[in-house]
Write a structure and sequence with these properties.
The protein is α/β, with parallel strands linked by helices and 413 residues long. The chain has seven helices and 19 strands. Strand 8, helix 4 and strand 9 form a beta-alpha-beta unit. The longest helix is centred in the first third of the chain and has 29 residues. The termini are far apart.
Length: 413
């Protein structure tokens, strides 16, 4: 065997060994179990929500909407940079906030609270907008604390801050059928969901007939004034009815507002064209309790009346099917996680009030059955509601903010 032949034989043997080694490594890697992928730490996503759990947003902009500087818009951009899915105009966002009892005092230890605020703009893929009114202490009770959450937003939340936000939710949103004229009625800061519906209509259904009624005290509180006037000037299908109850000396009827008084059925009779309309109403409790039933008594079908109240306002529609919940007292309510067993005596309006009165901490938000923040696992017993909650309660759970015990209860809280 010549030297070149011997060299070739050795080379071939070495190449064969290398190939065998590679094959063994590949087979071992294929046989090895795949690494377990990281699991997201969010809660289960409901089918109707854009995402589950909390998502972080950065405050991109702040902008006051009224002359009194009492209503501030916050523009929120997702920290992950992903496009935002469209929501239904009229829905709200739920926020988790770390606040102190005094928003201006850094010495107090912060505590977590949950609050809900209506979206005040049409859906955009880049940002959300909420508009929050500062809730001051009542003029006749200056010793009362101002609104905890609204003070936090106005005094503490600045451009660049990060907020924890749940996906848009709520059953109060506009019917997208363009053939049905809409009547939007906002009282005070109740204008915010109406702005979302209105701006969506102007962008997507500019020919749809829209009547907007906006009730407030005077020009100092007139939010979105320039935006509303510009939309009314460029969209012939929009009719604007601004109603001041106590105009200031500088307010001019016909320029700043169209009507003096309050938004009531008598005003609607005089200014609305005949025919079917879908009514959307949002405002303080007194307005809701007077106007919503009056619409039904006027003859508006209950199916055409949609409303959202601030807090636990009770609105009863004439003719609506309603079964009075029997009063229950003297039943035991066990809060399992807290290790407390208490007797329900009927003094409280809800299980949430009952829990808070006895020092049991329960997460809460809207306090009106809309956001689901107080949803709690019901381990035993039956909870009753005076009105069906707006939030879709999961099986085996209950809403403490609008629920009362029908039997002895065992709650996971």
């Amino acid at each position: 065997m010549t030297a070149p032949e011997l060299l070739g034989l050795i080379t071939a043997a070495l190449l064969l060994q290398v190939a065998v080694g590679i094959g063994v490594v590949v087979r071992r890697r294929r046989a090895a179990p795949a690494p377990t992928p990281l699991q997201p730490t969010t809660t289960t996503t409901r089918p109707d929500l854009a995402w589950g759990g909390w998502r972080e947003f950065r405050v991109a902009r702040r902008e006051f909407e009224d002359a009194a500087l009492s209503q501030c818009s916050f523009y929120l951009q997702p920290l992950d940079g992903q496009p935002l899915p469209a929501f239904r105009p009229g829905q709200f966002l739920t926020f988790s906030l770390d606040v102190t009892a005094d928003a201006t005092d850094d010495a107090n230890a912060p505590r977590a609270i949950t609050r809900c605020y209506s979206l005040s703009d049409r859906p955009e893929p880049t940002h959300y907008r909420v508009t929050i009114k500062r809730v001051a202490a009542p003029a006749d009770h200056p010793e009362f604390r101002p609104g905890l959450s609204s003070s936090h937003f106005h005094d503490r939340v600045q451009i660049g801050d990060i907020l924890r936000v749940k996906a848009p939710s709520g059953h109060f949103f506009i019917d997208p059928d363009p053939s049905v004229p809409v009547v939007l009625i906002g009282g005070g800061i109740g204008i915010t969901p109406m702005m979302s519906m209105l701006r969506w209509c102007m962008a997507n259904q500019p020919q749809r007939a829209v009547q907007l009624y906006y009730g407030l005290r005077n020009g100092d509180e007139h939010a979105f004034k320039r935006q509303l006037e510009e939309m009314a000037g460029s969209h012939p299908a929009l009719r604007l009815h601004v109603v001041y109850s106590r105009p200031a000396a500088a307010d001019v009827q016909g320029r700043d507002y169209q009507h003096r008084g309050h938004v009531d059925v008598e005003l609607l009779r005089k200014t609305l064209p005949h025919g079917r309309h879908q009514f959307y109403v949002c405002g303080p409790a007194a307005m809701m309790q007077a106007l919503v039933p009056a619409l039904a008594e006027w003859g508006v079908p209950v199916a055409d009346i949609h409303y959202e109240a601030f807090g636990p306002a009770t609105v009863k529609l004439p003719g609506a099917s309603e079964v009075a919940a029997p009063a229950v007292s003297g039943v035991e309510v066990k809060f399992q996680r807290s290790g407390r067993t208490l007797t329900w005596d009927g003094r409280d309006g809800s299980l949430l009030d009952f829990a808070e009165r006895h020092g049991i901490e329960v997460e809460s938000g809207c306090r009106s059955g809309g956001c689901g923040s107080c949803e709690t696992r019901l381990l035993d017993g039956t909870v009753q509601y005076e009105h069906a909650p707006d939030h879709d309660v999961a099986a085996g759970h209950c809403l403490l903010c609008v629920g009362r015990p029908a039997t002895p209860l065992v709650l996971e809280a």
